[in-house]
Design goal:
Order of helices and strands: HHHH
Radius of gyration: 19 Å
Number of strands: 0
Length: 125
C-alpha cells in the first residue's frame, strides 16, 4: 500500500504562498538580521506575523481551540519543510522551539533519583 502525500489545491496554494513569502521577505533579512536593533526587528517581525496570520498559517501546530489552524500531520510536515529553509521563518510563523507542539500538552513528569544512582538511557529489548 502506497502513502498518498498529495494535498488539496487550496492548501497547495498556501504552500506556494509560503515559499514565495519566505523567499521574498525573510531570506533577504538573514544577512542583516544581526545588525537590526531589537526594536526595529520587533516591528518588522510583527508586520510579517500579521501577514502570516491573515493567511491562517500562524501557530499551525496549535489546536483550533488554542488559536491554531488544526492542520493534520501531513500538512504540518509539508509546512515544516518550507519553514525550515530560513532561520527567521520559525519565529514569523509561530513554530519556534520550545513553543512548537507543546501547547495544551501535559507537563512532563520529573523524576528525582537518589544521589549516586546511575541512570542508563537505553531502549529495552
Amino acid at each position: 500500500m502506497a502513502w498518498d502525500f498529495e494535498t488539496d489545491p487550496e492548501f497547495a496554494e498556501q504552500l506556494a504562498w509560503m515559499r514565495s513569502f519566505i523567499d521574498r521577505e525573510l531570506i533577504p533579512l538573514e544577512p542583516v538580521f544581526d545588525e537590526l536593533p531589537t526594536g526595529e526587528w520587533l516591528a518588522v517581525k510583527r508586520h510579517l506575523q500579521e501577514q502570516v496570520k491573515e493567511r491562517g498559517l500562524w501557530g499551525a501546530f496549535l489546536d483550533p481551540k488554542l488559536g491554531g489552524s488544526g492542520f493534520g500531520q501531513l500538512k504540518l510536515a509539508q509546512m515544516s519543510e518550507i519553514i525550515g529553509r530560513c532561520m527567521l521563518s520559525m519565529t514569523v510563523f509561530g513554530v519556534q522551539a520550545p513553543d512548537s507542539g507543546k501547547h495544551g500538552a501535559p507537563r512532563p513528569r520529573r523524576y528525582r533519583f537518589p544521589e549516586g544512582t546511575m541512570v542508563v538511557a537505553e531502549p529495552s529489548r
